Amino acid sequence: MQAIVIEDKQLVPREVPDPEAGAGEVVVDVTAAGVNRADVAQRQGHYPPPPGSSPYPGLECAGVISAVGPGVTGRHVGERVGALLAGGGYAERVAVPAGQLLPVPAGLSLTETAALPEVACTVWSNVVDRDRLRKGQTLLVHGGGSGIGTFAIQLGHALGASVVTTARASKHDVLRRLGADLVIDYTTDDFVAATRDFNGRGADVILDIVGAKYLSRNIEALAPDGRLSVIGMQGGRQAELDLGALMAKRGSVSSTSLRARPPADKARIVAGVTRAVWPLIEAGAIRPIIETTMPLADAAEAHKLMESSDHLGKILLTP
Question: pTM above the 0.90 mark?
């Protein structure tokens, strides 16, 4: 099969052996795979795959099951699925633990489904499962124009929260249509003051892809009893934390990574997303936002677009 391999920090198409379905796994023939910032970090040498997982990039895909391994029940060859991966999505086929498969939402194509597993599982596991966002609260989403951001805005809105987000001015109109109540141009405006002015108290939950650069300001932006989840390090990995400021807010800070979690943890998250989020997608409250779909062989160009941050929503690759 063809896959995209990393050689000297470059993405190169190569012929590689087909994967086999091990115990508890299925093989999926990939229709489309999502591109994520984590893939860029892996290519650059900063985010190696977990031990035992595929060395090829790609953390989500959708396609058709072509083989079922020992011990797998309730799955069959020919079934259309989405999949949360630890790697290997940039390929024609990938082996996946059966617990990490998601159904194709009613009304969506396989290609559209490929835009959902990683963002849905990341956002739900942080914003809902860990940080308990509820109706009437305020969610602040950094990087609103990203795949994570466009999904988080829609999920927060669907749950009845007020949604504040940061993004370049060119993306503001689309993000408002997705459900953002306030969109802040992070290049010119202070998101701390804007969030406080919005509701008089700050954000109950903050979903942050920036990391160190925003840490102190995120603490300022928290409402009393607020929760900050850091899921990215685009703005660096080390920063000073003012514990006094955090304690004064009775706030909490958590940081999570989805990729390296054990399969059982991922299966629990996938089950929660299937139960709580997929009905919202099928009802039309959330939809995949796709900037472009590119051939698998053009993965290097897809990474250039990702690194430019000029895209809105997801970038997909098709074998």
Answer: yes
